[in-house]
TrEMBL record:
The chain crosses the membrane at residues 44-65. Pfam families: Bac_transf (PF02397). It comes from Thioclava dalianensis. Its main location: membrane. This is Sugar transferase. InterPro entries: Bact_transf. GO terms for cellular component: plasma membrane. Keywords: Cell membrane, Exopolysaccharide synthesis, Membrane, Transferase, Transmembrane, Transmembrane helix. It comes from the Bacteria. Belongs to the bacterial sugar transferase family.
Length: 236
C-alpha cells in the first residue's frame, strides 16, 4: 500500500508542474500510537482542564476573525496522522480566502520565494496571511481549535507537527516513526526554534520523540511551550 504524493518543481523556469511519485507505507501496521492509553487519558484530562479556561479566549478570537475580513472563521487542512490516517487539522483562519491564487502569483514573480517554498513549505513574508493572522501565528493562537482534534483522538496535546502527504517524502526512513504517533498541538519542534530549524532537524526531532517518548518528555515539552510562545521563537 502506498501514498500518491505530488512533488512540485520548476519546469523551464516559468511554471510549477505537479509530478506524481510514491512513498511506501510501512509494512508494519501499528495497533496503538506512541504512549498508548496512558497518553490518551492524560490528553483527555488536560482537555477537561483547558477548555473552561480557553472558552472566553476562543469566543473572542472567533469574533475577531469574523470581523477582520470576509470568510470562514476556521480552516481545516488535510493532514496525516497515526498509521497514515488523513484528518482535517483545524485552525483559526489566518489567510485570505483566495490564498492559493495569491501564493501562485507570488511564487511566479519571486524565484527566491519559490525556492524557499519548495525547500521548506514556508515563506518569511507570506502574502496570503492577513494582518490579524500575523498576530495569531506569532502567538500560536491560531492552533487553539486543534483542541477539538485532540478531543476526537486525531491529535495529542504533545507530538510531532502534523504534516501533509507531500511532506512525508522528506522523512525518508523516518516515516515509520512519524506514523507511530498522533501529531501534537505542541511538540519538540515548537519549543526548539520552529521555523528557524531546518526541515532535516525537524525530522530528527520527530524520530527522537517517537523513539524516546515518556510522560516526563511530554511534561518537559509542555513546560517549555508557554515561554516559547511568549518569546515567539521561530514564529512565521
Amino acid at each position: 500500500m502506498s501514498f500518491d504524493l505530488f512533488r512540485i518543481f520548476e519546469s523551464g523556469g516559468t511554471s510549477l508542474v505537479e509530478v506524481p511519485y510514491t512513498v511506501k507505507k510501512p509494512k508494519q501496521y501499528f495497533y496503538t500510537p506512541v504512549g498508548g492509553g496512558t497518553k490518551r487519558c492524560i490528553d483527555l484530562v488536560l482537555i477537561a482542564l483547558f477548555i473552561p479556561l480557553f472558552l472566553p479566549l476562543l469566543a473572542g478570537l472567533c469574533l475577531l476573525v469574523k470581523l477582520s475580513d470576509k470568510g470562514p472563521i476556521f480552516y481545516g487542512h488535510k493532514r496525516i496522522g497515526f498509521n497514515g490516517r488523513e484528518f482535517r487539522c483545524w485552525k483559526f483562519r489566518t489567510m485570505v480566502v483566495d490564498g492559493d491564487a495569491v501564493l501562485e502569483r507570488h511564487l511566479k514573480a519571486n524565484p527566491q520565494a519559490r525556492a524557499m517554498w519548495l525547500r521548506e513549505r514556508k515563506l518569511d513574508d507570506d502574502p496570503r496571511v492577513t494582518a490579524l493572522g500575523v498576530v495569531l501565528r506569532k502567538l500560536s493562537l491560531d492552533e487553539l481549535p486543534q483542541l477539538y482534534n485532540v478531543l476526537s483522538g486525531e491529535m495529542s496535546i504533545v507530538g510531532p507537527r502534523p504534516v501533509v502527504h507531500a511532506e512525508l517524502a522528506n522523512y525518508s526512513g523516518s516515516v515509520k516513526h512519524y506514523l507511530r504517533t498522533r501529531p501534537g498541538v505542541t511538540g519538540l519542534w515548537q519549543v526548539s526554534g520552529r521555523s528557524d530549524m531546518s526541515y532535516r532537524d525537524r525530522v530528527k526531532l520527530d524520530r527522537f520523540y517517537a523513539s524516546r517518548w515518556s510522560n516526563i518528555l511530554d511534561l518537559w515539552v509542555l513546560a517549555r511551550t508557554v515561554p516559547a510562545v511568549l518569546m515567539s521563537r521561530g514564529a512565521r
